[in-house]
Structure prediction request, 534 residues.
Amino acid sequence: MVGCPGCGSKLVFDIATQQMKCVYCGQFYLVSEVEKRSKDAEEHDGLQDDAIMQAQDMEVTVFTCSQCGAEIVADSDEAVTWCSYCGSPATLKSRLSRIRKPERVVPFKITKEECVERYRAIAKKQFYAPHDLLKLGKADSFRGIYMPFWSFDVRRNGEFRFPAKKVITTPNQTITTEYLAKGKLDARHEGLSHDASLSFEDAISEKIIPYEQAGKVRFSECYLNGFYANAADQTAEDCLPQVMNMERAMIVDSAKHAFDDIGLLEDKAESQLHDKDAYTINPIPSMDMYPVWFLSYRHKDRVSYATVNGQTGKVYADFPASPFKYLLFSLLTAVPVFLFLNLFLTASPSIVMFFAMIVALCFSTMYKHEVEDIYERVFRVNYSEQDRKRFNMKKLWEIVMTVFVTMLCCIHVVILLIMGLKQLGFFGTDKASIIFSGACVVLFAIRFFKMRGRFMALTEVKTGLTNGLFLLASIVALVMSIVRPADDMFYYAVAYATVGIVAFSVVSLISCYNKLSSQKPKQFNRSGGDDDNA
Prediction:
């Protein structure tokens, strides 16, 4: 690559103008002009023959992290002082290497300043995020990296046979009609992409795609000047299964809308698309480079990432939560609420215990749903649309019933306190405590055995311990409601212990959430930049 025609200094790609800019004199040049000068220089030096003209690779400087083995490509005069993937501040070792030259590239469209603004717009809403992570939202924290993607144009021809079923229910009968939609399928999907770098987590790359295919241009090394790049370490065959999953999902989604009136059975339709005898499938791969703004945040032995699509500005970021911030905010919120209520209401020790059990019931329901979501995410559980709707309705019913029972109990107790009564109709505070505590014992026992058996693989979430503590607190509260000891300290002890269990459960969930929003850096079996082993 040639230097600035005016002063000979380094040229970098300027995002705002989409031209090459001299870092010293500030002059701008078209990419095509710089390319032409580079080719003319190579021809003049006798370095460009037919073999090099037809080469499918290019010589680059590869920096390898000595900690995790991740590799990035940069200019030979670039000083790389930290690793984007493991957050290590150690200086990376460099070596010359040859990598496959991409066919096309999507140049950066989002400037670093725009990237920071988009990140901050999301970060400022993360109230419980660690303070040092929020401070990273500045220009120096982001690194522009071109990520390799295998892009496929997939053509599918054949005869589709998609089953469907429609159910009509009347007061007297249920009519089920089964269909078989048949026809010729001629589908073509362009630009189905999957990242070709093992360093770039698939779960992260899938959050910031797609890239606009109209923005692709013929690859030139000029676009890499001033940025980093990642070399592909996955073949087209490695990425093809994920791309075909995307292609089948897009066909089923189109068919779902086309046959909406007969109720397409999506799972069976997708299974039929796996029939190799029914279709002729022609996937054509090409290597592309896509722009990503990349930020890594390391805390102890784990790393969290924030990524911004360098073309569209789509942001994906993992924000761990600070248990200290959460508990401090909860305490600061609880104190004024307690003081306000204390001005108007005077609660007996038994009512304090009663309210503590109401809080335990509400949080136990929230805890159950959060653990279920964590379980699905950790083990990548994919439910069918019908099962998903059924589970969502069940969750909604549990939430509605919990809110209804909570409001009913609170209204009952508040009326008693306002009127200065100990009994309202047939239900006094003692009877209400016995009934409510007994119901909690049954509910917590069910959740203890059900969640302990189903989610015991979640080592980061102590489901058995937490639900066991909830069950124990409800049993003690039931005994207290029946025995009614004279010493008020017993009631307060149960109430404080119940609130402590809730706080412990919150910290447990936050700890697991932080595990999900971060990861241990991958360890790659590479030489760490040792030229002798390159």
In short: Confidence is low (pLDDT under 50) at residues 49-54, 423-427, 527-534. The CA atoms of residues 151 and 193 lie 4 Å apart. The first strand starts at residue 11 and ends at 14.
